[in-house]
Design goal:
Elements: E1 6-11, H1 17-31, E2 35-39, H2 45-55, H3 64-88, E3 92-96, H4 99-109, H5 114-125, E4 132-137, H6 140-148, H7 161-177, E5 182-186, H8 191-209
Parallel strand pairs: 1-3, 1-4, 2-3, 4-5
Helix pairs in contact: 1-8, 2-3, 3-5, 4-7
The structure holds P1-(5'-adenosyl)P5-(5'-thymidyl)pentaphosphate (T5A).
């Protein structure tokens, strides 16, 4: 049984996860809550090396199954080395992407059946799920426009618009299945409005942590 709260941020490219992570960090710091901030794929030495392989252009034609398995290899290491130890000692965990991204990108985007992903989720996570997921939702065109202003596209960002449409729709389907856990944030609004939505979702959790 874990004690800390596990919060994840999700969304298509350019949704504003990095920007919102800064805001979450300051909310937790102000509340005096100890936390681990991390990301996927990545978060450990092995995970960061897998991230380079997954996001870089060296293996442009990697098979969809290899991509899926590498995501879960990174996740298995991450859970054992970082996430579970942090939660077990009562720290909160803020994670930039987790398994919902696998359902959205490898499931929705690549077309791998959710039931196959579920097998790996059960194996690697043994029932663990985030307590709260903030899904930053916005039209694909807007996300790609924002992401494009920033840096050269990685292997995923080089995908076609239709790929991200499927990713977005898969995320929305996940939130319909688990509306209590996966909260939709309208990320098309200006930054101030987006951060206000995040504060209003997260504040009840902060208040319940103050005993
Ligand atoms: N992946 C990951 C899988 O396929 N399967 C998996 O299981 C997992 C875990 C990881 C990639 O791996 C894939 C998905 C991804 O393609 P990543 O770095 O986590 O890559 O994901 P990215 O989406 O590439 O992250 P980005 O850093 O590109 O996007 P962010 O963090 O969502 O966006 P951010 O905050 O950098 O914002 C983009 C720009 O928009 C501005 C910001 O200032 C910035 O310039 N912005 C706004 N502008 C106006 N109004 C707002 N509300 C704004 N919010 C942000």
């Amino acid at each position: 049984m874990t004690e800390g709260l596990f919060i994840t941020l999700e969304g298509i490219e350019g949704a504003g996860k990095t920007t919102c992570m800064d805001h979450l960090r300051s909310l937790l710091e102000q509340a005096g809550i100890a936390f681990l901030e991390t990301r996927e794929p990545g978060g450990t030495q092995l995970g960061e090396e897998l991230r380079q392989l997954l996001l870089g252009h060296k293996h442009t034609g990697m098979s969809h199954d290899a991509e899926l398995l590498m995501m879960f290899a990174s996740r298995a290491e991450h859970l054992q080395q970082k996430i579970l130890p942090a939660l077990d000692t009562g720290q909160w965990v803020l994670c930039d992407r987790f398994t919902d991204a696998t359902y959205a990108y490898q499931g929705g985007g690549r077309g791998i059946a959710f039931s196959r992903i579920q097998v790996l989720e059960d194996w690697v996570q043994n029932g663990l799920k985030p307590d709260l997921t903030l899904l930053l939702d916005l039209p694909v065109e807007l996300g790609l426009e924002r992401a494009g202003k920033r840096s050269a596209p990685d292997r995923f960002e080089s995908e076609a618009m239709e790929f991200f449409d499927r990713v977005r729709q898969a995320y929305l389907e996940l939130s319909r299945k688990e509306p209590e856990r996966i909260r939709i944030i309208d990320a098309s609004q200006n930054l101030e409005a987006v951060l206000a939505q995040i504060s209003s979702v997260v504040k009840p959790y902060l208040q319940s942590s103050i005993r």
